[in-house]
Design a protein that fits this description.
It is built from five helices and four strands. The longest helix is centred in the C-terminal third of the chain and has 13 residues. By secondary structure, it is an alpha/beta fold.
Length: about 100
């Protein structure tokens, strides 16, 4: 099982590659939706990470995948230009996913 990242930022994808995570760079809504579909149907991908900016472009689609798809798990991550505090993002993720509030 592996992870996949979808980002609009080259630095984010390159940084993730250094950690062994492959991915792709997209910039527009339709490209993002196509990248999500491709990742969701690629065998062996267990986690799809998508940056905040791209998740905001196609929020309804991302939310639908998060709510109705067991695998791969869709996780919204902040990139270097992200507005989220990492601690707040992790806490929100835990609350949404398993109902644990920190």
């Amino acid at each position: 099982m592996r992870c996949w990242v979808i980002s609009d930022n080259t630095d984010t994808v390159m940084g993730m590659r250094l950690a062994g995570v492959e991915g792709e760079i997209v910039h527009e809504r339709e490209q993002t939706i196509e990248a999500l579909k491709k990742a969701m149907h690629t065998e062996g991908i267990a986690v799809v990470m998508i940056t905040e900016k791209l998740a905001a472009l196609c929020g309804a689609e991302v939310q639908e995948l998060k709510e109705h798809t067991a695998l791969p798990l869709v996780v919204i991550i902040p990139d270097r230009h992200g507005t989220s505090d990492m601690t707040a993002a992790i806490s929100r993720y835990l609350a949404e996913t398993v109902g644990i509030h920190i």
